[in-house]
Write a structure and sequence with these properties.
The chain is built from 13 helices and 14 strands. The chain has 349 residues and is α/β, with parallel strands linked by helices. The protein is globular, with a radius of gyration of 19 Å. The mean pLDDT is 94.
């Protein structure tokens, strides 16, 4: 799709674009909504096949962030930044690129605040914070970054138990086969919690340097990329890039529950109905992965770990309500979650 059509079809406020000549990279800041204090969402830094793929990711992720903030009752609008690389960048060149990105964020005067996402780390937030104050996942009082990934993972863990209980009547995960796709900042801590709870953990990651140490630590089986969707499991937890659920992968799935940390797990809205037709309970991504955002908003308000952890336990109730509403109306949890978001945004306007 060409970018003019992408923009026309997108209901957001603005997209800021810069071409970074030094790194030969495109910077996209998609501001879907500035409701509340500002638009807030992470910064994704990765190689994309084309700049348009990066733009597509940015605008979809920004829209997802608006839903996420609404689903967890936080007064921010959705935004997302994508630095679309044509080739990998490291060391000094990467630092310099991030500084230039920080200055771009600063030039938006607070309409967008950034945070970590795929390809950026908590330490990168400290670097950005030396250039602009519009950085989250950073404790401005202690002047230290922190990692939202462990909180996201905790929320997904609570969500998996919630979904498993909804389907089987018990949230005992002993012996339950959970396939975690992606063992990065969210997938690795999630896999640890699952193993501790007695689940049989199966792991996949495209990067063996990430996969092998975690698989060894947990004694977990690894699954090659081409076998992910057809490998027998009870729960599928996508924790990497989005759009893994579509008309070709859904027919292959054997799981009863899907709940994971990835954003934009469905390629298109119809995929939610495809999952219902296959009898798979889907925890809407922006709800079940919202705990990282919860932690960010609470750290912004000065909260500590215990308070954040308590707040994240509310994920269970939130998801259970969504599953119940979906079941009662014979629809997908995606539809029930969307109605929840509409109610929240409707009330707030
Ligand atoms: N990128 C993560 C997410 O999408 C964490 C994050 C949340 C970062 C909110 C910034 C803002 O949930």
């Amino acid at each position: 799709m060409i970018w003019t059509e992408l923009f026309r079809a997108w209901p957001g406020e603005e997209v800021v674009v810069r071409y970074d000549r030094d790194a030969e990279a495109w910077m996209f800041v998609a501001i879907h909504s500035t409701r509340g204090k500002r638009s807030v969402g992470g910064c994704r830094l990765k190689v994309y096949p084309t700049p348009e793929d990066g733009l597509w990711d940015a605008i979809r992720l920004a829209e997802g962030m608006t839903n996420k903030w609404a689903a967890i009752d936080v007064d921010y609008g959705g935004g997302k930044a994508v630095i679309a690389l044509s080739r990998p960048v490291a060391g000094e060149a990467r630092t310099a690129l991030l500084r230039r990105f920080g200055r771009m964020i600063d030039s938006l005067n607070g309409r967008y605040g950034t945070g970590p996402d795929i390809g950026t780390t908590p330490d990168d937030m400290a670097l950005l914070a030396s250039v602009t104050r519009y950085v989250h996942c950073y404790d401005w009082i202690k002047r230290a970054p922190y990692d939202p990934g462990i909180y996201t993972a905790l929320g997904v863990f609570v969500g998996i138990k919630s979904a498993w209980r909804f389907v089987t009547g018990s949230d005992d995960l002993r012996g339950v086969r959970v396939l975690v796709q992606g063992v990065g900042d969210t997938g690795a801590p999630l896999a640890r919690s699952l193993a501790k709870a007695g689940a049989v953990v199966l792991l996949n990651d495209l990067n063996p340097d990430k996969l092998d140490p975690v698989a060894k630590e947990l004694g977990a089986e690894t699954v090659p990329a081409e076998a992910v969707y057809r490998t027998p499991c009870d729960v599928y937890a996508p924790c990497s890039v989005g759009a893994t659920l579509d008309e070709t992968t859904i027919p292959q799935l054997t799981c009863r529950v899907i709940a994971g940390a990835a954003n934009n797990q469905l390629r298109s809205p119809e995929d939610g109905d495809r999952l219902v037709a296959r009898g798979i309970l889907y925890a809407p991504d922006y709800v079940v992965n919202g705990a990282g955002a919860v932690s960010l908003a609470m750290v912004d308000e000065g909260a500590g770990f215990d308070a954040i952890e308590r707040e994240i336990q509310k994920m269970d109730q939130r998801l259970t309500e969504i599953f119940q509403e979906a079941k009662a109306r014979g629809e997908s949890p995606v539809a029930a979650a969307a109605r929840r978001v509409e109610r929240r945004l409707g009330v707030a306007q």
